[in-house]
Amino acid sequence: MVEEPELAELEAKTLTELQEMAKELGIPGYRKMKKHDLVFRILETRAEQSGLMFREGVLEIAEDGKGFLRVNGYLPSPEDVYVAPAQIKRFGL
User: Fold this and answer.
1) Which domains does the chain have, with CATH numbers?
2) C-alpha span between 52 and 35 (Å, rounded)
């Protein structure tokens, strides 16, 4: 989960500042990215460099409250991420 202060700090930066950060992080194609995309890629790169997994997809919640983040559309795949019922409840997913 992205901490709100970090996200807010990045969103407050100018495009030029974000491009400099992206350059330092080695993000390819950063000069052509829009500000929103740069913020996302910076967060993603930082997470990966810290050993964290950054995923996006469709959250499927089963009747028993367990969830699976489906990363390849709506069908199950080995890349899917398990989401505990406590996390679903905590973040109102």
Assistant:
1) 4-49 (1.10.720.10), 58-90 (no CATH)
2) 23
